[in-house]
UniProtKB/TrEMBL annotation:
Belongs to the 'GDSL' lipolytic enzyme family. Gene3D superfamilies: SGNH hydrolase (3.40.50.1110). This is GDSL esterase/lipase 6. GO terms for molecular function: hydrolase activity, acting on ester bonds. Keywords: Hydrolase, Lipid degradation, Lipid metabolism, Signal. Residues 1-24 form the signal peptide. Coiled coil: none annotated. InterPro entries: GDSL (IPR001087), GDSL_Est/Lipase (IPR051058), SGNH_hydro_sf (IPR036514), SGNH_plant_lipase-like (IPR035669). One of its GO terms (biological process) is lipid catabolic process. The lineage of its organism: Eukaryota, Viridiplantae, Streptophyta, Embryophyta, Tracheophyta. The gene is LOC108831753.
Length: 364
């Protein structure tokens, strides 16, 4: 029979494991976050790329939190921002902004809390939105690699840091554009994307990444911008696009599951963003949404025919009740709910353990 003290210890441990997250004021459990991807993460890199036409550096972007445009494609913070705050780190700045400050000598060195390399509109495939001047994932990795090789980031910090990676929705959306010239079948196209995923993981591991979080695509076929596509329905989600995203996600999870075996010393988690978002759509009232179909800010059918902030746009009075902020991107509140699910959610939301466990080395 166990002693009463050991029973109490077990009870206390169970309470700890099932208690809600408390964000302590103690020092962060990891030193930095390095972020790669697209508009889900972009903190303003495109704004500092004057050759890029994919922009959100004008009102009313940023209006709900920063009270000014920051280059983020939402009304406030992104998933990367919320994860930083949960950990207790200052928000990471865009690489291109930091690079300008270094060149201008208004900044002596790159900050120790990490760097955001993400570029809205980019994808895993080099041709995705190339005409818009976005920074593809390969170039983002090259930017990071250059800093590592120049010893502008301490290698000891890199191994203790969290790496966030999310991309691919622009690749899949663009597959269905009427002027898309690819001759690849959907399966071959997904294969090409996943080839780049494997190369990305291989490269960040070689550069020192050991704690890696890779997020699935959401239901891309549900974004209001589908109204721009001649063959997409507007009274329901675009099934063929979502089927392609789900196929990619299944294969992506297999890759993530192999990381600890293929890369000694690395640990990785798979954020099931598709499932998280699908629950918001299926049970909107449970999550405080009154609209999970239309853009809060935009114009035309679904608010998806015009970018938020462009001439003739309309904006809702209650962005917190909308799942979508603009024709393609979630509201800050959606990102907050998504971030909480990834931070302390169960295995339906993120697996094999959540970001809180990954950040604190508690892999229960």
């Amino acid at each position: 029979m166990p002693s009463s003290s050991s029973s109490m210890d077990l009870l206390f441990a169970l309470i700890l494991l099932t208690s809600p997250v408390v964000l302590a004021k103690s020092p962060p459990s990891l030193p930095a976050i390095f972020t790669f991807g697209d508009s889900i993460f972009d903190a303003g890199n495109n704004h500092f790329n004057k050759n890029c036409t994919a922009q959100a550096d004008f009102p009313p972007y940023g209006s709900s939190f920063f009270h000014q445009p920051t280059g983020r494609f939402t009304n406030g913070r992104t998933v990367a921002d919320f994860i930083s705050q949960f950990i207790g780190l200052p928000l990471q700045k865009p690489f291109l902004e930091l690079q300008i400050q270094i060149l201008n000598r208004t900044l002596k060195q790159f900050p120790s809390n990490g760097i955001n390399f993400a570029s809205a509109g980019s994808g895993f495939l080099l041709d995705t939105n190339k005409d818009m001047g976005v920074t593809p994932i390969q170039s983002q990795l090259h930017q990071f690699q250059t800093l590592v090789e120049q010893n502008q980031i301490e290698k000891s910090i890199i191994q203790e840091s969290l790496f966030l990676l999310e991309s691919g929705s622009n690749d899949i959306f663009n597959y269905f554009l009427p002027f898309q010239t690819t001759r690849l079948s959907p399966d071959d196209y997904v294969d090409a994307m996943l080839t780049q995923v494997n190369k990305t993981i291989d490269q960040i591991y070689k550069l020192g990444a050991r704690r890696i979080a890779i997020f699935s695509l959401g239901p891309v076929g549900c974004v209001p911008a589908r109204a721009l596509l001649p063959n997409a329905p507007t009274n329901k989600c675009f099934g063929r696009m979502n089927a392609m995203a789900k196929k990619y996600n299944r294969r992506l999870e297999e890759i993530v599951n192999m990381i600890p075996t293929k890369y000694p010393g690395a640990i990785a988690v798979f954020g099931a963003v598709y499932g998280i978002t699908h629950r918001f759509q299926t049970y909107p009232a449970r999550y405080g949404f009154s609209d999970v179909s239309n853009a809060c800010c935009g114009g035309g059918t679904l608010g998806g025919l015009k970018q938020c902030g462009r001439e003739g746009y309309k904006i809702c009075n209650n962005p917190n009740e909308f799942m979508f902020w603009d024709f393609y991107h979630p509201t800050e509140r959606t990102y907050h709910l998504m971030s909480k699910a990834l931070w302390n959610g169960n295995k339906n939301k993120i697996r094999p353990f959540n970001l809180m466990a990954l950040a604190t080395n508690i892999t229960f």
